[in-house]
Amino acid sequence: MSVHLRPEEIEAESFRIIEAELGAHRWSEREWPVVRRAIHTSADFEWSQSMCFSENAIDSALAAIREGVGVVSDTTMILSGVSKLRLKPFGITASCYVADPEVAREAKELKITRSILAMRRAGREAGNGIFLIGNAPTALFELIRLVREENLRPRLIVGLPVGFVGAAESKEALKELAREIPELPFITNTGRKGGSNVAAAVMNALLIQAEQ
Amino acid sequence: MSVHLRPEEIEAESFRIIEAELGAHRWSEREWPVVRRAIHTSADFEWSQSMCFSENAIDSALAAIREGVGVVSDTTMILSGVSKLRLKPFGITASCYVADPEVAREAKELKITRSILAMRRAGREAGNGIFLIGNAPTALFELIRLVREENLRPRLIVGLPVGFVGAAESKEALKELAREIPELPFITNTGRKGGSNVAAAVMNALLIQAEQ
């Protein structure tokens, strides 16, 4: 029975099923492991249609990982989902400031969302790092502002907020920003879908590639 | 611009959009907030087709929450996603044993997955509690075995593993179990989709109802 397979055998079998059912696709050899892991984590083949990568996204991400840059996220769920075991050999610290008491205090005082303030803090702490956004469109909009107005230059933006208010629009704003700044490395998608689980899966797929 | 709405306004607007786009549905007044939050967290309307509740699921869950029973999950992502703020007034402790060193040691020794051993431990620690499974089919299969063979009687099983190997089958096994034990309270779905994000969303929706 399939449940008696070891975890790595289950993963290999899952990938085999995904590839058999999807058939031909448009992804490069280095993009595909990222898209495949997004499908694997969500059981949703739509990711094969909706994901997009800047041309330099994987190069920039792998170099940044190998340098051990900081990783910041907009949710603690992403932190939980990114493999600690895979971060460790690169000496990477992953952080999320949304539950930080200082951020909460400031949010109340300034009457702006904790997501926005957490992104500003992330910009100060890990400006040249990897930014993983899997929940809040406001976080991605603020990150876009930091890049455009304050010259923040992340080594990778994973822009995958989810939802019905602003999520799709925030991703289009990211693509618009990348037309202004063509060297900006990003991975995003089109539409409302996204999520902390998929953002973490993208990061894990990149960590696995960086090991090789 | 929509991004300047407060978080609770964004949520209300999201729910309005979900209800407007979905139109008529088959859910009861108390099931709908759970299904709606699953759609909200995933931007995937398929949840309105694929979810299923045992008749007593919500009653049993709300009573258990109000008694402050233990909550256990198969992933730390679920723990991150369940609102600590909402657990606290009920005095509920949420736990996940999959990263427990003892579980890891035993898994190596016995050559069975950590998910299975974490579920056994959860059964010992919180047998009459709420079980949230959002990732591993093996965890749900083991929970089913504990109910059938060792008389474990959870107050709610949220069975939402995701993936291509065993996930759909584990949910059908849960429904089969519920035919043998008609009083077993469960929330699950049909098919491969699932995930820690949706399992956490279901729990949060139940906590909100229990407050009322």
Outline type of chain A: globular
- What radius of gyration of chain A results from the CA coordinates? 17 Å
Overall pLDDT score of chain A:
96
In total, the number of domains of chain A comes to 1
Q: Look up the CATH topology of chain A.
A: Rossmann fold
* Main β-sheet, spatial strand arrangement of chain A: 1-6-5-4-2-3
| CATH classification, class level of chain A | Alpha Beta
Family (chains A, B): Belongs to the CobH/CbiC family.
Domain Cobalamin biosynthesis precorrin-8X methylmutase CobH/CbiC (chains A, B): 9-207
Protein name (chains A, B): Precorrin-8X methylmutase
InterPro entries (chains A, B): Cbl_synth_CobH/CbiC, CobH/CbiC_sf
Report on the architecture of this protein.
2 copies of one chain form a homodimer. Chain A has 212 residues and is an alpha/beta fold. Chain A starts with 6 loop residues before the first helix and ends with a helix. In chain A, 56% of the residues lie in helices and 10% in strands. Chain A has one domain: 3-Layer(aba) Sandwich (Rossmann fold). The model of chain A has no long low-confidence stretch (mean pLDDT 96). In chain A, helix 9 packs parallel to helix 10 (167-180). Chain A has a 6-stranded mixed beta sheet with strand order 1-6-5-4-2-3, with helices on both faces. Chain A has helices at 7-22, 32-42, 47-50, 57-67, 76-81, 84-87, 101-110, 114-126, 137-150, 167-180, 196-211; strands at 51-53, 71-73, 94-96, 130-133, 156-159, 186-189. Chain A binds chain B through residues 2-3, 5-7, 10, 13-14, 17-18, 40-44, 75-77, 79-81, 113, 137-138, 141, 162-167, 169-170, 191-197, 200, and chain B through 2-3, 5-7, 10, 13-14, 17-18, 40-44, 75-77, 79-81, 113, 137-138, 141, 162-167, 169-170, 191-197, 200. Chains A, B: Pathway: Cofactor biosynthesis; adenosylcobalamin biosynthesis. Chains A, B: Belongs to the CobH/CbiC family. Chains A, B: This is Precorrin-8X methylmutase. Chains A, B: GO terms for molecular function: precorrin-8X methylmutase activity. Chains A, B: Keywords: Cobalamin biosynthesis, Isomerase.
